[in-house]
Specification:
It is a single chain. The protein is mainly alpha-helical. Helix content is 63%, strand content 11%. The strands form two sheets. Strands 1-2-5 form a three-stranded antiparallel sheet, with no helix packed on it. α2 packs antiparallel against α3 and α4 runs antiparallel to α5. It is elongated and about 45 Å long.
Length: 171
């Protein structure tokens, strides 16, 4: 009976596309992927690191996705920005763990550079998304004499995620 209930739920989920709004966010999806990559990396560390660096890396990387999802539910834009800030700081903690791992020779330079780039790209995406929320949360989309006409899309250019927007000077 339990399995039948799960099958019905999965069917409803697939057919009706039930989802939490954070599940559609690229930053959440990428942070979930990063969490799995870091979990595999942490498993490769020596046994003496199981309660130290391995644990810290896992907790920090999980915190990135957890804060994105927690902040997206029933929060104001200001509150959501606060949770995205926690997520960005957790990502900085992940990068510090990567530096610790390479210094302790648990990680090759090539793998460090790959994970560092993934973290850097994700951080820029999260900052752009957080800035989008900041603008969208302003009264009538006005910021310092400019009115936001259109949000636009995130664009990747020269190793940086950029949020393209269209603004008009308020007369």
């Amino acid at each position: 009976k339990f399995e039948e209930g799960i099958r019905k739920f999965v069917y409803l989920w697939k057919e009706n596309k039930m989802s939490f709004k954070f599940e559609n966010l690229i930053i959440w999806q990428k942070s979930m992927d990063l969490g799995e990559e870091m979990n595999l990396l942490a498993k490769s560390f020596p046994k003496e690191e199981i309660y130290n660096l391995s644990s810290q890396l896992r907790r920090a990387t999980d915190s990135v996705a957890l804060n994105i999802s927690e902040g997206s539910i029933l929060q104001s834009n200001a509150e959501y920005r606060k949770f995205l800030g926690y997520s960005i700081r957790s990502l900085a903690e992940v990068v510090t763990c990567l530096y610790k791992a390479i210094r302790r020779e648990y990680l090759s330079k090539i793998n460090f550079e790959k994970h560092y780039k993934d973290c850097f790209d994700l951080m820029n995406m999260m900052i752009a998304f957080r800035n989008k929320l900041k603008w969208g949360g302003c009264r009538r989309n006005e910021v310092r004499g400019w009115k936001l006409e259109e949000f636009g899309k995130l664009i990747y250019n020269n190793n940086l995620w950029i949020l393209k927007v269209q603004c008009q000077k308020i007369k």
